[in-house]
Amino acid sequence: MESKRNYQLDALKFFFTLCIFLYHARLLAPAGGLARQISDKWGWFGVHFFFIVSGMLMANSFMRHRTEQIQEPGKAAVRFVVHKFRSIAGIYFISFSFNFVIRFCIELHAHQDVSALTTLWKLILGSVPELFLVQMSGVRQIGVNSVTWYISAMLLVMLPLYYFLCKKPDFFLHVFSPTAALMLYGFFTQMDNGYFDQNDCIGPFSGGVLRALCGICAGAATWALAQWIREHLSDQQYSTKLTLIEVLFSVYLLLVWIFPSFSAQLMYGALLPIPLLVAVVFSGKSRISALFQMPWLRHINRLSMLIYFNHYAARQLITRFELWLDRPYLQRYLLMAMLTAGFCLLCATLEWLIHRCFSQKASKPV
User: Fold this and answer.
1) Cβ(85)–Cβ(151) under 8 Å?
2) Closest CA to 273 of 294, 252, 299
3) Whose CB among 92, 220, 300, 360 lies 3.0–4.6 Å from 59's, allowing a Cys bridge?
4) Contacts of 148 by beta carbon, 8 Å cutoff, 6+ apart
5) How large is the average pLDDT for residues 320-339?
6) How far apart are the C-alpha atoms of 171 and 177, rounded to whole Å?
7) pLDDT recorded at residue 142
């Protein structure tokens, strides 16, 4: 398995991050308008794509260090999940702080008859599950930075799945993962209340956990398909065919993506091939991958994370304080983009300063 970073995959992450941004910004557009009709599906399938990528990278990480993981699979699963979160912990907690302050100001404005200390204490108590990333277990009172439900669901699901992967890798990758992903996807399709929401609960399982299980299993199966492409379609003669397949899938999915949505059930079926496109991209055997070799693209993954974690604070400011309420919705979109850019810059600066501070302390002789 090649360890070279796939910048084409990072470009796809950036595209889907922008789609999630526009999905949350849709509330600034007129109800029933074209902007809402087009972007209605972007949130669900954008997050589904990220779950697929997370599952694929989980399988890839395991296979690269397979011999080290099978001795103590439980500890290996914990190490993997902890390492996964450590890579985003700085952005997570800094953006959480931004949203906490904004939520506190919103609550003060909405409940002026309640003391500031009481409001602060209630907000602290309600945000504890989110602070410890367990809100998708069902212990969720409020959403400070609501988009972080994805991280909670991903980590909760990855812990047992990584253990399962260590114990039965062949069965997990080729039997359990595709079967579980398809059955859960079918279950979501049969629900008659639109897109299956992360806050819906089925017995002891939150909707976020079920969506994570579906997407991560789909991602593990996607890794197996990408590996098969690398092993069996590596000859030059297949490169043109894979390029054609990728182009056709991309055009088809883009058309579905930009046209107004119909029912959620129809969209589930129409966007089912997303893992196939991701598998071709991750295999690196299509000629299109050569277009994504520029070194500067290594920064795009971090930019995607900054936008994802910080855009909700911008929307909260605009919607709760009714900023630019009399302006056209495209101008309010622009305001949200500018506020998001400001939060991203501040978040990146604070993270750099904190890292620099701790690095200097660690380098001082005792």
Assistant:
1) yes
2) 252
3) 220
4) 92, 95, 96, 130, 133, 135, 309
5) 93
6) 8
7) 82
Q: Which residues contact 97 (CB under 8 A, 6 or more apart)?
A: none
Q: Is the pLDDT of residue 362 over 80?
A: no
What residues contact residue 361 under an 8 Å CB cut-off, 6+ apart?
none
- What element of type H or E holds 198? none
Q: How far apart are the first and last CA of the chain?
A: 42
Q: For the chain, where are the alpha helices, taking DSSP H only?
A: 7-25, 34-39, 42-64, 66-69, 73-86, 89-110, 116-131, 149-167, 169-171, 177-190, 207-232, 236-258, 264-270, 274-283, 300-320, 329-363
Q: Does residue 341 carry a pLDDT above 50?
A: yes
Contact, 135 vs 147, CB < 8 A? no
203: which 2 tokens? 């017995």
Q: Give tens-digit pLDDT for 209-236.
A: 999 999 999 999 999 999 999 999 877 7
Q: What per-residue confidence (pLDDT) applies to 361?
A: 66
